Fold these 4 entries.
Entry 1:
Amino acid sequence: MNCKVYRDAFRVTCGAGFFTILACGSLFFLHAQGSAQKKETKAETIYFTHGRIYTNDPESPWAEALAVTDGKISCIGKLDHVLLDCGGGQEGAVTNHLHGRFVMPGFNDAHVHLGSAGADLLAVPLVGVASPEEMQKRVAAAVAQHQEGEWITGGGWDHTLWPDKRFPTRQLLDAVSPKNPVILTHVSGHVAVANSLALKKGEIDKNTPNPPGGEIERDGTGEPTGMLKEEAAMALVKDRIPDPAPEQRRRGIEMVFQEVAKNGVTSVQDYSAWEDFNVYGHMKEEGKLTVRITEWLNFLLPLDDLQNMRAQGGTKDPWLKTGALKAFTDGALGSRTAAMLEPYTDDPSTAGILTNDPEKLRTMAIQRDKAGFQLAFHAIGDRANRIALDVFEAVAKANGPRDRRDRIEHAQVVEPMDFTRFAQLNVIASMQPSHQTTDMRWAEDRIGSERIKGAYAWATMLKDGVHLAFGTDYPVEPISPFRGLYACVTREHPEGGPRNGWEPQEKISLEDCIRAYTTGAAYAQFEEGKKGELKAGEYADFIVLSDDLTKIPPAQYLKVQVLQTVVGGRTVFQSLP
């Protein structure tokens, strides 16, 4: 059976449709549905005592001890209460002495791409490369480790770090890889550069038209430069890359899970390939899943396929399930593919790219909402955000009121008149604070001093009553939530400055930041009351830190270490002294 899985999305073609997808992939769903992570047959209560526990529960924000039974918190409060009333003082009780350390709920990252992160860890590492020449050196090193004709992939390069801030070209890659096809994805994930051999394999030449929703960049003679903008264009080449071997895919995901646990992330809302989801399922059955995963599906798939995937993947399992439908409306600000209402300040020749037709989105959204799906639209530019809000408003009018919790992923640049619409439509702003830290080096150059006032606007969102859900967009940004806490509290560079922060009116408190990373993210996936707070009845998902976040200056957030990560009462990472 010949199956093709398109990376970073659930766009799958395989035989006659979805059921063949299950046949040519893993069949774990047939026996995994409804089963829980492997656990002890006899429920045992484990006690964590003598800690400084930040519960994130406004009614009772601090505790000294907690008890865990069958993966959930069964008791929490003062030390005497847990010891005397909850059995923690009984002889033989399993007790972990916290030695006064700071404990808080585990982070729930509301927007990640675990499959892409795993692929990146196994490919040419390009995060932080300081020049095109350094990119060449790393590609040359990879060529030396590959057979002639084998594909070379990589990701994470950021041209805004380079002296001339220009995109790379195919000629740059041809010089060191004339006999291996190469494609290297930008840190944003929205553009990539390919060498001449990769373009040839993708059948891209001077006469190839731009695909709908994408762009093939060309030089003055009309020849492709090697730059491919947005998924529609990148797919012309990426779809020719052979799928990784199953063991290779799993190895990358295992490495990613280690990073996730090490950084105190206990839940994620993920958008990856179907084969990655299969790997998660196998690991769950083996008792090796160390993070709770809610998997998004590709909005553009036929509705019948989406309903089948939802039925097979499930929506209730506390460890692994399917969730919202993900759609794209535009690209990214750094690559000038984010769709703006007016042209870019630093390049008036473009106002970005709409990756999907708004009318098509509206029609499909009404249909998918009627089938009971939550919708999550990627929107970065102010035009894209307006289109997403317009679509969600049309959906509500067409299908009537219900608790939809539709989401805009990134909500990065918003025209002032549109902020209140988020709250009016109960649209969740799923944002990534660390993007602001990265983008502040060039964002104002892109869109100017006036439009930037509507960018990365967490405080305005909160003031208008908008539900915030924070994440990292990993691997676009590192998985560390502490970078996000630092960004939203200070709006400064990691090394400090500008003084008082960039657009300081949008700073928010540490407490609000933590809520957006925990209870806010839980609300965004209909799981409030299950996780995000440390209280009786919620999942025992918590982390032990080297420092008390409430007592240290924000500059120290970036130095905080996770000493222990506990998910469902089970320690999945530990680095205690």
Entry 2:
Amino acid sequence: MISGTQRGSVRLQSGTLLDSVEVSLQAALRTPEGTAEPVAVLWTDADGQWKPLIAGLRTTLPHLFALGPYNPSTRTGPVIWLKCIVARSLPDMAPPTGTTPILYLPGVSRQDLRAAEDCPAALQPLVELQYRGRVWHQSNGRDWSVEAFLVSKEGLGLDIAQDLRTREAMVRALPLLAETPIDSLRGRRLEADDFDKLAVSDPVRDLLRWMSNPELFEKGLDAGRWQAFRSICRSEFGLDPDEAGASAAGGALATGGTRWDDVWQRFSEAPRLYPGIPMLLREPADGQGKLAFDPSRRPEANDEAEERLRRELEQVVGLPHRDACERILALETEHGLRREWVWAQLGESSFATALEPLTRLASLAKVFVGGASVESMAEAYAAAGWQCDRAALDALASTKADSESAVIAKVVRALYEPWLDASARLFQDLVARRGGDLRALATGLAPEKETCLVFADGLRFDVGGLLKEKLESRGLLVRLSHRIAPLPTVTATAKPLVSPACEAVDASSPDDDFTPVLGENKQRVSAAVLRQEILRRGVAILEPDEAGSPARSEAGAWVEVGRLDTLDTLGHKLQARLVQQIESHAERIVERVAALLEAGWPKVRIVTDHGWLLLPGGLPKVELPTSLVATKWARCAAVRGDSAPAVPTYVWHWNTFTRIACPPGIACFRAGNEYAHGGVSLQECVVPDIIVERAGGGTAATIASIQWRGMRCRVSVRTNNPAVRVDLRLNWKQPATSIVASIKEVGAEGETSLAVSDDAHEGAAAMVVVLDPAGNVLDKRTTSVGQVS
């Protein structure tokens, strides 16, 4: 199932073609900054090339729906039915909560939908979904054909011959290609014979396909091939499909031995390709009792273990904290092995799967974060303590069904709440020893030339750790450190401090809603005022679709990652269900950072304002009389005058005469909050500070000028590395689209000349790109081949 939390960036390097299509469809769900989540993904397929894969994808994508004659059993229907699916007005067919429906449209091209009024009348109701949803297509705007997906660098990047015979063999072999490991096709040029060989009998694969759907398999064979298949089954597997039937084959598969162990191994590698086999394994085998079976091959054995684990997890909730932690560790010893069973791959071992992060949480929650000072406790949390928060979020995100999520949420609360509250109280005691004043530790940032500051609202430290992993997986250099957020830990107070305009904020400005003012004109620091002040200081502000250039900015740049900037809003709206959105938001930040580095920024620094608390079932409530405070939020309040509330008070960062009331431990002033921030805890106050650079050094380059003389292009580049090279491409992302005789280094003078090798390109739109020694694009600019300068 595709959802925001289940897939990261597109990585089409292994698995099967079906796996790769699923991942690529996930990429289409990514939402550009400042836009709403898509209501659907449209998969246009004018020639119906992808039809052979749809049956296989239905088993892995329960929210895949197809255009065609009405047939609910195959999730197929006419246009009006698809519109009802998108509107979720058919309860029995609605996609699972948190997923976006994928609409497969055979016989429909993207151009049909873009034609609007000229679009066929029957398809016109789908036109508006282009704008509220996403269309799965290549970066050049064309539909994904099978061939394009296989050869494109955006797809699988396979080396395939371009002759007609190979193309025909490739399409003919598509159903078999869908089950073939992609890695086995790499490292060589694929021709017609390579695809035809896929159709040569693979006894194990053919046996599994027959067992999964005997009727469909037999329909696809003529009498001669069927008899050959029977003969192979008798000689290699000791079973005659005509005489024994699929049920007996299921019993032999469950029992194992001889060649049947090979069959089980193949099934285990990709069980979703054979959706009928799990049902076979649930049938009793003729003449054999259950004791003859390997438990790992019995779905009912897994079912029984799952139900037993559910009961045992429910009992954990009532245990003392240390006993609950120890019980989870014991359950992992008993049930952890089931995550390696095939049933976990099929999504039938939800509790065993959730047990992995629960075990991490139980192990970490046994030891509270400690320290002798605010600084030492913050360092201990940034070094390892945050992993307890990460384990709690992972456990909450591990299950999707409401009944399962409810059980896991209660266990997480039992393990996590005592650790969370004890750590918060110790941290508050240490802050109290400083007079409730963290101003000396919560320092601002100075703008840096050639550095782009990326601001993400509500980036808690454990999410920062997730970002580090994702960025490093892309080969980037990442340094994760920590900062102390100012009090109270709300955006109005904390965002100005990490902005390039922090020095302009008046440190003596009083305000009851925690918003400071500018020292020069006493304007309240709203989002618009902050942007104006940042610009006034020579820092470029980048829009959501803009990467900018370090050479064109006096003091670096500032960009807000808009989707994560709404994380705070989402948190208050979704409460504990926020965990389902975190990974997709982290992925958006990663994509933004990668684009900035690709545009030539030597360094990107990710900063935030505050973290947050999240506890399923709700944070405890403490009372605070309204008469004692001027304003009251979930985790903070501005104390009125000389009032003396019976809760800890702290110093507002921007005015020492303004006192902030915060509840003790992890409590709230309001009931019903599973998610909140504004108070004093490690999770709210210790925030990540992440510096990201390209591996191998900070090479930067910017195109200064482009001049044409006939079919020769002279390019001037400003760079700190004379080894950067210049190319001219029809598609800047694809080296294979280069149209020059050779790419060249700029040298010490920062200039080079490129010759276009084919006059046929005259007048064509092309892209001048500057590459670092590793081939990464540092800068790019559109030009017209042979244009008069």
Entry 3:
Amino acid sequence: MIAKSLGPYRILGKLGEGGMGEVYRARDTRLGRDVAVKVLPEALAGDPGALARFEQEARAVASLSHPNILAIHDFGTEDGVRFAVTELLEGATLREKLESGPMPVRKALDYALQMARGLAAAHDRGVVHRDVKPDNVFVTSDGVVKILDFGLAKAQAPASTDSPTMMSPARLRQGYGEAGTEMGTVLGTVGYMSPEQVRAQAVDRRSDIFSFGCVLYEMLSGRRAFVRGTTVETMTAILNDDPPAFETLARPGSPAAPVPAALSRLVLHCLEKDPNERFQSARDLAFDLQSLASPSSSETAAPRVETRRFRGTAWLAVSILVAGAAAVAFLAGDWLGAGRSAANRVPGTEVRPLTFQPALELDPSLSPDGQSFVFSANYTGSEDIWVQRVGGQNPVNLTKECDKRDDSPAFSPTGDRIAYRTECGGGGIWVMGATGESPRRLTDFGYAPAWSPDGREIVVATDNRPQPYDANFTSQLWVVNVETGAKRLLFDGDAANPNWSPHGLRIAYWRELGGQRDIATVAAAAPPPSQPAAPPVPVPVTDDAATDWDPVWSPDGNYLYFGSDRAGSLNLWRVAIDERTGKTRGQPEPVTLPAPWSGHYSISRDGSRIIYRTLASTDTVYRVSFDPEAGKTVGQAVSIFGTSLVVTTPDVSPDGRSIVFATVGSHGDLFLVRSDGTSLTHLTDDPARDRRPVFSPDGARIAFYSNRSGKYEIWTTRPDGSEQVSLTPKLFVEALYPNWSPNGRAIVFPTTVDNHLLEFTWPPTDVRHTVLPRPPKGWPAFWSYSWSPDSSTLAGYFASAERDEDRGLALYAFATQQYERLTRSGIFPLWLPDSRRLLYLDRGALWLFDTTTKTGRVVVETGDGPPLTSFTVSRDGKVIYFVREHSDGDIWLATLKQ
């Protein structure tokens, strides 16, 4: 084949060979690049089965596009020779890397996370690999993992032979073969097969997860999980045995610490014999691996979902004390300066308010010269963008032509343009002149736009998070060219409120990961076209229990300023940082502002001024009578109690006498209050985050989800807070909003991907677990929230981080296992007693939706008052309790004094 041409590909040399093909280095004469060409050998060209598998691999890989999957460029036939053209890789197979023994935990996690992401992308396209093993995993010279060889992908029916067939043992230096493939009555590789493969049963994505577990076990231990003396013995071990525990194995040659317990549990969960007990998706697996990969993590991740936004006043008493201390510090000048060198002294501050109106001003952005600022506020009946001179009192409306919401304004580096988010004109990110002239649409999605220092690009997040606990959906980062509108995905992990470093090197953001709110950065530049588009690697800035959010770079790139509650109240902090690498050069230090809550920081070009907003909030719970037949409220709503606590997801007891609710803060607790607003009782009081409590149909227990065990599980407690019991201790999924069945003998809960059914008797000594079917391909994730009284249907809502039109309510029918879309917006649907109509929240109002007529209307309007943030309805449908958020806040200016 050397010097031969296959179409435009000139063969340069042989790279290796395997059972399913020979691999050559070739030159693409059209594009002037080197590629790898895999050729079906002549000996197999007449074998229909081999030819089918070869073509199956080409089609399977061609349907995928992911940085952790080998990219296929072409497929064809030349002079009777079948060939596939792929990217050319430099590096080694994972099998070759394992020849030197077990890997350090950190490196194994890195490789495993990349593998899981690649498998998730394949599974999303309906492609199951069925032969995941170290030989089919390639690590490039720059550390990027590539999954190879989809020749046994799911669309290929299982083959059968009379005896095991050993493929060529030669390892391919470029990793494009199937070295060591063993095939008997099933397809796959002995030692990495799942139990269902060994039994020649039908397989799905969970089979790949078992094989993945075998590979990860080998990376960590240096030995195969189930290897025995013969093929039959190995298969028997796969069916019946557990691999030796990591703590019983020596790790010769590995400089790494012992395998953490959380990682050991993750591996064993992948290796469950029953597919229903494994991870149900590679995305869930990748999510937990990402959590474990964080520098100080020792447990699994918490979900990326919160019930609603958090306000700093959840700790009002503490905040007042801290605010008082801050005021004393302010009067004393640079109170932290003593004992520091002048070059590293935390700056003191002088502050003054810039806005005074009785409204909530949001999203301030300071002009580069520090002389004016833009912000969003509802002064005239809708949220608009306003500009005001620093020291002036007459804000000017820049978006008065839009009668919908406009927010998140950001001055360009030159101060002559403003990027902002709007719901007018199709929504998305728009750019206008500094005085509101010539607005034009840049994207149809995105929040929190931030300019690159040269003004050529804008980075946006896909989830809106005006508060540090607004983690509704996984938030990606996209970079958009301001002139052309061209878009590129920068980061598909969780990232919100991005801010570009002053020299354009890195982008800082805050993320929800492992139940924490932390700061991280990623490289901003796109990779050269000649290099594979590997996902950027986040560099953590903070990684601890404190809530950190809203980072902004100092103009010289030497510091990151951010909001944090690490001293009690949500205030301003900074940390020294290397802009080039993103690595910190010290510990966070306070730059205390005289405010119990602050956020949305913006710094002037000379670094001397920081603009920010304050917030003061209370929640009020109201009660209103409701006529379930007419679908209307009766009389006026009455306030039953107010609190500085953040009241979320209330639920009324079956007898109507009590309301249970959760709070959100640095940790979340459950509270019980009488339905008349008296006798507030603390049900849980510990560092765990306890969320979404719901009474059982008989009122004897309250289900909720909590991370008290190290990961989110479904728990139950008696209404007095006693007998707290986990229903999901053996499940490795992150369990969210529990929903009781009408008979009280089952609970449905969603994860970030699937919905799960638990069936049990009490006490729950035997819990049966099944996974419900997913929505149709192309639909967003469905989060179940309420079980109809007639037991037939689940109501829930879609959670899409990318498109507003993919959000809204939906139903799942148990009888047909079918999903039905209802609306394009709305959350938290609750059934009325007729199992036909739903109450739900949408745009700060309470709505009623008829699932038969497919019509909806407002039941409780926002009007001129604050928005509704949560609600519940009595079992007979005759009383509604809802929560309004009463907030006020102003924009302030801090002048830094070094």
Entry 4:
Amino acid sequence: MKTIWQDIWFSVRMMLKRPGFTLIAVITLALGIGANTAIFSLVNAVLLRHLPFNEPDRLVMVWEDASFLGASQDTPAPGNYADWKAQNNVFEDMAALQFQSFNLTGDGEPERVTVFATTANFFPMLGAKPEIGRIFSQEEDKPEANKVAVISHSLWQNRYAGERGVLEKNILLNGESYKVIGVMPAEFQFLMSGVNIWTPIRFTQKNLADRDAHYLNVVARLKKDVTPEQAQAEMKTIMARIVKASGESEQLSVSVIPLSEQLSGNMRRPFFMLLVAVGFVLLIACANIANLQLSRASTRTKEIAIRTALGAGRWRIIRQLLTESLLLAIIGGILGLLLAEWSFAFLQQLIPQNIALSAKLGLDTRVLGFSLLISLFTGVIFGLAPALQIAKTDVQSTLKQDGRSGAGTGKNKLRNALIISEVALSLMLLVGAGLLVQTVYKLRYQDLGFQSENVLTLRTSLSNKKYEEHSKRVSFYDGVLERVKHLPGVVSAGYTTTVSLAWTGGGSGLSIEGRPENPNEVINATQRYISPDYLQTMGIQLRDGRFFSEGDNEKTQSVVIINETFARTFRANENPLGKRIKVGEPDNDKRPWLTIVGVTKDIKARGLDADVKPEMYAPYHQVNYNTWAAPRDLAIRTSVEPMSIAGAVRQAVKEVDPDQPVSNIRTMDEILGTLVLQRRLGMMLIVFFASLALLLAALGIYGVLSYFVTAHTQEIGVHMALGAKSTNILAMVLKKGMALALAGLAIGLIASFALTRLIQSFLFDIGPNDWLTFTIVSLILTGVALIACFVPARRATKVDHMIALRYE
């Protein structure tokens, strides 16, 4: 123990003796260790932490697998849920949830709230308890029971000022009275963000026999010693039995997904990519410090020789040098922790919204342990090779040098290998960053099929009870549009089911007149019911036919406009104009035939990188069925800054219906920004890490060449004394540095061609081996390397050959 303390004290003295080296080493390590700690804290919060539920590893989501319709995780029908629960032998319990959206009125400004209607066993199965009050009982989950509600912590604080008197208070949801019986904790969250209220689902026997409406989310708890794979196998058997008995499609199956995978499964690969990136940065940092240690070793050979001559063994020398490295790494790790904590506010934005309330970044025990381990590992990595090299010092030859220091061949080879590795790793990071930068740019600025500039959007979801009659809905839409269109700064306005990219849209089966029936063919299209001016407001181009007009109302022929994909898919090789389609079966007398009067350009409606699907638009005046697809989003094109008219639009809605809430007020540009936000943040991180790697690699090249110039000062003096010109000396040093850089460049290019395929799934409209990206990155790296080489090379040309010949 005494010798260990001696080693530590001696290491401190050596660090203080060379403050410049110590400062550079600590800052370099702090950046590398801090980046790794920050990204690990993100991985820990999202992928490694236990979900805040009782025995979360036994919780699974159960979905209908309708892959034949393009939905591998489709929401189950109540009838299927009831049979699953009754027939399975693998689950302890199973609960159902239904997503809803209500208007909250009666005790303040109207507000649109997100609601989960759940079975009474939902909270107990999760092990979730309210912060105050209670949860609803089995008796309150029956159709005839009084209506009760449990509210979220955020709603309690924001609308009711956190008053405990909210318990037993009656609130109005879509005009119906609900008694508040409990408030959930702030960190409680399940499946999605922004849920304000939970109510009993109150299934009727008719509901539980329904296999046509698919709208539930189903969560279950596995029995002990039952694996998700076993549950999957049994549920498939049960589903096959249900399909056979009910006459549903034989292709319909079931999917059992662990809850942890459901909530964070799509984040695993992006986070792994970030871990690889920061790992590269740390390796480059270690290589740099190792190079500094090797350069510094040339000034310590005589010290090591004297200590060896006085009896210090090789292991004792290595231990002393490793102690210095570990001390540097630990100091760098402490500073890295501070940098990591400083980055948490930024990294929190990368956490998926569906777990954001409970997945908070912080320096918990696991993160602190990781930081300590990575610091120790780093200290060994960058310290071991120099220590082994220095410990090989030949005592007699070193003492005979009388103070001269040479550049050992073994040390030079190691230094060169480290620089080549740094350049190769930097190139791989830069290539990845370049591909991701282009991906984000292409996603954001691709041809969307509509014009997003100067468009304000907002939502006015109508209560089904208050606006049950179609005429009342039409009167509301018409009244709002009439007022909004006359506001100063408004160019045009239109209503739609949902604006593009805000929701993927909904669809149901279609019939196409004159098309032979094919039992294996599914005819489906996203349906949006719109006002006459909506398509023009969004700048959606017409390819053929006409737009809707005010004359397309309930008294005229029912019409529809389809997109190009619809025409290609279902009306290939023929002009679709004048042809007719129907929502539902062809013999359904309650649904009219819709005549195609126009074809629009395809637009990005389901997602920036999602394939375009068949889509249809119908005038809301003519549609008194499918109320689930009734208009709720208002799009307004303006000649002024869109948000500047938001207040006036709110007032216009209030004039039509004082109790109607207005929500989701955003510009289309904001919606687009939100869709690329996580990719943009991830891209920014990769670009930062790649830039840091490039800087470290440049410093590494500079350091090696500076050492080369210093170690060969006498040789340079001899060359100059014999008549060598400055350009010859400059070329000699540049050749040395660029040879290392180009070797690293070649290795990095080969490795990048292989590794970029791992990020192919993150790319959009660009190949993993894009030649332009590889070319630009190679030129950037070559240019930076040339600059790093030029500074010490130019210094070499300034050597005074008379002084150099006397140099020791």
